[in-house]
Write a structure and sequence with these properties.
Order of helices and strands of chain A: HEHEHEHEHEHEEHEHHHEHHH
Strand content of chain B: 15-25%
Bound molecules: zinc ion
Largest interface: A-B, 30 and 25 residues
Largest sheet of chain B: 9 strands, mixed
Distance between the termini of chain A: 23 Å
Radius of gyration of chain A: 19 Å
Shape of chain B: globular
Oligomer: heterodimer
Number of helices of chain A: 13
Structural class of chain B: alpha/beta
Strand order of the largest sheet of chain A: 7-6-5-8-9
Number of helices of chain B: 11
Helix content of chain A: 25-40%
Structural class of chain A: alpha/beta
Number of strands of chain A: 9
Chain lengths: 325, 431
């Protein structure tokens, strides 16, 4: 494992499988009455959020606390962070406080990379979403969810997603979730198809390790998982598509479309869902939809990542070792 | 001592000759200069070095007035002298904007006062660079600064009617409009070249077509009104094709390329290091090769630095928050040597053409870009083309250090510069 987690593209197959396996171990902790491990006792982790995301922050915070780390939440939103210096200034303040890891969420693509490589700080840096670039723990929790559902909870240990066909639908252009998932799912052996109107596919996508299609219906029957991305309503005003209705008609997932997916296939969404636009209530509430599991899995994945980045030299958490601790 | 004998220099890269300067003019050039003529002259041993006319930069940002923390006319012209320049054209995007006779005269006078390099101010095309109302182009031309080049650089004159009027209006006094070609709607939120790398990095794309569509429009406007237009920092292979087509059609268009667009590509942005953030953005290797070829065959007329100094804190931050631009005066010739001369695309006479004769002609810089021959103003520079060394920004004369070449090995070193016979740089040191 590297010292930082900035991009899903930085993970090898073995790194990724190790994280998923470790997350399975971590998930078992959640099933116990006392959901806490002493693993990161005495370590200080800062959740540095320049961009609002209660869901992601709470998920990281829960993971940190279950590992007994000391947690500091720093929310820069509201304070005037228009000048770029603030990232550096903040980093140096945290460095002076002897922080061991920084979980950073930032509106600017590349900010976590800058933080990790500019010599401003020594701590491990974990990217919790940067601009339209990457959100690697989201991709890991998605892969974890897929492995559990499509390969099996115990059967999945040590395995990747070879041969699985994943369709990602929606605003690819502005989506760090899509970028992270394409990288990680490819590394894990899955075949990815991106589906979106051409206006929401980035120029240059042809070099990505995936297929691109403009027609959702033709991809459904051969998908093991369909991941719906959030489409922000303001994209309509910027003429990425004509109307909300037309978008829903062509790219929304409703009951009819879900019925055309294979029986075992799941529906995923990084949340929060805008019901009616990209996904109907019928689909969102069906038991094929994994949104709630994804949230729970997020904590296990983040525990695994923090443990592996900060837990010292031990390669992985074996089942027994966790029990001993 | 008013006489200087430059001995054994390869004038424009040719056979070694001696050049005798008397006062502010070249007195003689030849293989033999009589002892009598050279008597009492200070002798500069230039064996092995190449002598060129003083370089002329049609595109410099000196930042004064308004951003003296980045650069001043003094520090900028010292940087220019270090790079072998004897004249620079100072862009109008200062605070206040150079859109009146008062501001351009001030900048012009500061250049004369300091004496390192002639500063020829560029006037804004529109009031406050706002693109709505023509600035007093005639008054700036008639001022002591004698402005001949007009540009809203930093911003594009995107309104087709304003651009047309500006092109027509400057015909009255032989001026030229220098366009920063950037369609503003196509580049909203743009952070880097739009393509494979931007798709991966999730940075807002600056598509080539945003430059090319404006160039296409402007050459057609220039043709329609019978005026001349100059294209600033052309950066894409497609732009080259449009300019080539326009020239073949007889349209009076000239174009410049920056050294960094001849050398660097958008792959460097993968580092998210804002030192590579520049406008127009670094493009692809294919573009770089097309630009080199176009500069070699004359489709692109000149090299201009777009020297854009910024203080450290404006670059030591995350990419999106960083200022756009690179300093370039002190490394320009080295980059041109690496990309054009050492690759065999251009000889030194070709470099003189593109970095001195032609920019002086486009900007009508009097006394600059003249032949190295008797009776001409002694605006000259010497370059040690055999030198190899890595770039150390700590030694820059520019107040800012935002160079993309820190630690990079580049060939060539400017050792001497003379402005009207007065040495501004001797053995690589400013006077
Ligand atoms: Zn410009």
């Amino acid at each position: 494992m590297q010292r930082h987690l900035i991009s899903a593209a930085d993970l090898t197959r073995d790194d990724a499988v190790l994280i998923l396996d470790t997350a399975e171990e971590m998930a078992r902790v959640a099933d116990r009455p006392i959901k806490k491990l002493p693993t990161l006792r005495g370590r200080t982790i800062v959740n540095l959020f320049f961009e609002d995301s209660t869901r992601t922050r709470i998920s990281f915070e829960a993971a940190e606390k279950r590992l007994s780390a000391d947690v500091i939440n720093f929310t820069a939103k509201g304070s005037s962070v228009s000048k770029g210096e603030s990232l550096k200034d903040t980093a140096q303040t945290l460095e002076a406080m002897g922080v061991d890891a920084v979980v950073i969420r930032h509106g600017a693509s590349g900010a976590p990379y800058r933080l990790a490589t500019s010599g401003w700080i020594d701590a491990a840096v974990i990217n919790a979403g940067d601009g339209t670039h990457q959100h690697p723990t989201q991709a890991l929790l998605d892969a974890f969810t897929m492995r559990r559902r499509l390969v099996g909870r115990d059967a999945g240990i040590g395995r990747d997603l070879s041969g699985k066909r994943i369709t990602i639908v929606g605003d690819i252009l502005h989506s760090r979730v899509a970028r992270s998932n394409v990288d990680l799912l490819h590394t894990l052996g899955a075949e990815v198809t991106l589906v979106a109107p051409p206006t929401l596919v980035p120029v240059g996508v042809e070099t990505w390790p995936c297929e691109v299609a403009y027609d959702l219906d033709s991809t459904l029957a051969k998908s093991d998982a369909v991941m719906m991305l959030r489409v922000q309503r303001e994209r309509m005003n910027a003429a990425f598509f004509p109307t909300e209705r037309e978008y829903s008609r062509r790219y929304g997932l409703d009951g009819d479309r879900m019925a055309r997916m294979p029986e075992h296939a799941i529906v995923m969404h990084p949340g929060p869902m805008v019901r009616g636009m990209e996904i109907t209530a019928e689909v969102a509430d069906s038991d094929r939809c994994t949104v709630v599991e994804q949230v729970a899995n997020g904590v296990s994945i983040r525990m695994a990542v923090l443990y592996l980045l900060l837990g010292g030299n031990e390669p992985a958490v074996s089942h027994t070792r966790i029990e001993e601790k | 001592m008013s006489k200087i004998l430059i001995r054994g220099a390869k004038v424009l890269g040719g056979e070694p000759q001696n050049v005798l300067i008397d006062g502010s003019v070249i007195e003689a050039v030849g293989t033999e200069i009589s002892d009598e003529a050279a008597e009492g002259a200070e002798v500069v041993d230039a064996a092995g070095k190449v002598l060129l006319p003083g370089l002329v930069d049609l595109h410099t940002h000196l930042r004064e007035p308004g951003r003296e923390d980045s650069e001043t006319v003094l520090t900028g012209t010292r940087a220019a002298a270090s790079g072998g320049y004897t004249a620079v054209f100072a862009m109008a995007n200062t605070f206040p904007v150079a859109d009146t006779a008062g501001v351009v005269e001030q900048v012009y006078r500061l250049g004369q006062q300091h004496g390192y390099c002639d500063v020829q101010p560029i006037g804004a095309v529109t009031v406050g660079l706002e693109g709505r109302k023509l600035a007093e182009l005639g008054a700036m031309h008639e001022s002591a600064a004698g402005v001949t080049v007009f540009s809203d650089d930093g911003k594009c004159v995107d309104d087709a009617v304003i651009m047309r009027r500006a092109l027509e209006y400057v015909k009255a006094f032989g001026g030229v409009v220098a366009q920063h070609a950037q369609e503003p709607r196509l580049t909203e939120g743009a952070q880097m070249n739009e393509g494979v790398v931007s798709a991966e990095l999730g940075l807002g794309g600056w598509p080539a077509v945003a430059e090319e569509s404006i160039i296409a429009r402007d050459v057609l406007l220039a043709e329609h009104v019978g005026s001349r237009v100059h294209i600033c920092h052309l950066s894409t292979a497609g732009s080259v094709e449009i300019v080539r087509w326009a020239k073949s059609r007889g349209i009076d268009v000239t174009a410049e390329v920056t050294p960094h667009h001849l050398l660097l590509t958008d792959e460097l942005v993968r580092s998210y290091n804002p030192v590579y953030k520049v406008n127009p953005p670094l493009r692809t290797q294919r573009d770089v090769l097309a630009l080199r070829e176009a500069l070699a065959d004359g489709t692109i007329d000149i090299v201009a630095t777009d020297h854009a100094p910024h203080p450290h804190e404006d670059k030591d931050c995350e990419w999106a928050a960083a200022a756009m631009g690179m300093v370039g005066l002190e490394t320009a010739l080295s980059v041109v040597q690496e990309t054009m001369v050492d690759t065999g695309l251009l000889d030194w006479a070709g470099v003189a053409e593109r970095m001195s004769f032609k920019p002086a002609e486009i900007g009508q810089a009097k006394g600059h870009g003249r032949p190295v021959s008797a009776g001409e103003p002694a605006n000259l520079m010497l370059v040690d083309t055999e030198y190899r060394g890595s770039v150390d920004p700590a030694g820059f004369a520019s107040r800012s250090r935002n160079t993309p070449y820190e630690g990079r090995e580049l060939p060539g070193r400017v050792t001497h510069t003379w402005l009207r016979g007065k040495a501004t740089l001797v053995d690589g040191k400013l006077t």
